[in-house]
Structure formats: C-alpha cells, structure tokens
Amino acid sequence: MISVRRHNAGFCRSHFIEHIHRQVARTISDHHMFDAGERLVLGVSGGKDSLALWEILTQLGYRVDGVYLHLGIGEYSSDGLRLSRRFASERDLSLRVIDLGTEHGFSIPEAARLTSRVACSACGLSKRYLLNEAAAEMGYDVLVVGHNLDDEAAVLLGNVLRWEVDYLARQRPVLPTADGGLVRKVKPLLRVAERETAAYAVLRGIQYEIEECPMAAGNTINRYKEWLNRLEEQSPGLKAQFLFGFLDRGAAYFPPDPPELLACGECGRPTPGETCSFCRLKKVTVLRIARRSA
Amino acid sequence: MKVIMHQPRREIEVSGPRSVKALLNRLDLVSESVLVIRGDELLTDDVRLSPDDVIEVRPVISGG
Fold first, then answer.
1. Is residue B64 part of a domain?
2. Which of A102, A125, A160, B25 is most exposed, with minimal Cβ within 10 Å?
3. Which one of A1, A49, A230 has the shortest CB-CB distance to B44?
C-alpha cells in the first residue's frame, strides 16, 4: 500500500502503477509533448526518475532510446552507468554513452575545482549542453528529461525567491525546438512527485542509484525540496498547487522572450553570446588541467 | 529495531517507536522525503512496527 496524501488516496501496487501511467499519459497529452511517430531520446542517469520514466514510457508503448553522460564523478558515475546499462539490457533498449573525459578532456570534479563555478552549476550546464548536442547529432525530434514535480517546484521556489524573471519565462513543461540546433525538451514527470517515482521504481523492481551524488550534498535545490516537503507535510497538495498555479495562472506574466541565438564560435551550437557557456567552461578547465600537469 | 539509513549507507539501532510515523519523528524526517521499506513492502505512516523489524529508510530527494 502507498499513500498519496495530496490526492487523499491510498493505492495498492497495481493501482498505484496504473495511476502513475495515467498521470504521465495525461501530461504528455495536455502539453502536446510528442506524437507517436517522433523519435525520442531520454537523458538517463541511473537514478530513480530517469529509469522510472524510461519504464513508464515503454509501458505506454513509446519506443525511447537512452543517452547516459559519464561525468567522471568517481564511483557515483560508474554505478549510474552500470545500473543504466543493466536496465537497458534487461529490456532490450538502446543506450548510448557519452564520456565527458574522453570526448571533452575534463570531468565535473575538475571543472568545479579549477573554475569558480560550483559543482552543480558546472554539472547542470554540461548536462544541458551534452544532452541537446547528442539529441541533435543523432537526429532525434524530442529530448525527454526526468524532471519531476519536486524538481520543478524547487526550481520555481528558487526563481521566485530571487525574482529571476528570465528563468521564470523559461520554466515550462515543453521547451520548443529552436533554429540552429535546439531540440524540443519535454518533462513528462511533471505531475509525479519525487516520492512517487521512487515508489514506482521499488514496486516495479527497478534497481537504481540510491546514494546521492557526492558533489550535490547540501546543494540549494535539495534544501528547497526539504523545505517544501516540510510544508507539504502540514498542507498536503501545496507543492502541486504552487507549481500548477504558476503554470496555469502565473506563467502568462512571464512570457518567453527568447534571445536571438548565434552560432558558438567554438562548437557552432546555438548561444546568445559569441561563445557558449559549455565551451567557456571547457576552455578554462582544460587549460588549467594542462598547466597543472606541465 | 535495526534501521538502514542512506547517504551514507549505515545501520543504526532504534528502540521505542511503535509506528512508522513515530520512527520518522524520532529521526526528524517527514514522510514526503523518504520511503519506509520492510522486506519488499512499502509502509504507510500508520503501520505498526515491532522491535525485531529491519526497516530501510530510503531518501527520495536527489539531483540538483
């Protein structure tokens, strides 16, 4: 039995799984995320959200390929890869692996140590860049990511606390395709809370990486999630009201105003400046690695 | 009872709590942030616990 207090409901195993499938199917349909004939690729980490989403989409009848980014974070990365490979192999799904060290010459711990960026910031921008690049180069129509209700609510809280109006304008369930190589990005787990993706993974027997990334300990978003969960404990449904209230009624006050995109001078990918953030990060990190080893 | 915790993974001994809710209160955790597992069973807050139980408290918050 699992209780979902925001729905004031308790579910047995089979009804809970059906409930999660319905929530995801509804999200895909309500936000016109993709059609049956489109080519889908999912960013896979070996964690509960991406593996649960891969399972859900497969169960709903979609053919989805996976791409795993090896970010060089020691045992955490190698465990994530092992679990992702096992999941894909058991279900005869296709998984492509991109190794940041092999393909770009640095790891996330090196980027965090050798530049002024905090680890989660360097990691986030690298993942956004590499997943989009992989989706574009391999000819996919849609990049699917495992951001859940809690991820989106926590990011919204951070954006509201600092009134990041540009980020609020980009916080949407679907980020559309843009000229120059930005692949449409969609978030089908929008209506599924983090606890529910974990419960789904356990109930489906999915082996996922339970331990948190060692570089993310105490990070801001995880702290916001804990605060929101303490509020949710007192007021079930509050996280969903906060997020969906914004998307239904608040987002219109922050209309997307996409900047004119240019081709990055280094990699050719779309960027609002001359050189994209990823190439700037890579350039500084690789240069400092070379200096240290000289 | 024996309680398996994570981040980092460890085992602790907790005596006294007679329900999942009481155990979470003792550990200063809220049920929205964890799954409580006994064997292959997910437990709701009202489930009674016994001193012989082995309980896993698995965090669900991840990413960033």
1. no
2. A102
3. A1
CATH number reported for the structural domain that contains residue A93 in this entry: 3.40.50.620
B25 contacts on A by Cβ (under 8 Å): none
ipTM score for this prediction: 0.95
Domain count along chain B: 1
pTM of the model: 0.96
- Long-range contact pairs involving A161-170 (C-beta distance under 8 Å, separation at least 24): A165/A254, A166/A257, A168/A246, A168/A250, A168/A251, A168/A254, A169/A254, A169/A255, A169/A256, A169/A257, A170/A256
Which residues in chain B are closer than 8 Å to A189, comparing Cβ atoms?
none
Q: Number of folded domains in chain A?
A: 1
Domain that holds residue A171: 2-213+244-259
- Residues in chain A within 8 Å Cβ distance of B58: 198, 202, 210
Which of the residues B24, B33, B62 would you substitute to probe the A interface, choosing the one with the greatest number of A C-beta atoms within 10 Å? B62
Please report whether residue A54 resides in a domain.
yes
CA-based nearest residue in chain A for residue B8: A211
Residue A281 inside a domain? The answer is no
Residues A12, A31: Cα–Cα separation, whole Å: 28
Strand partners, A9: A4
Q: Which of A198, A216, A233 sits opposite B60 (nearest CB)?
A: A198
Structural domain boundaries enclosing B17: 2-59
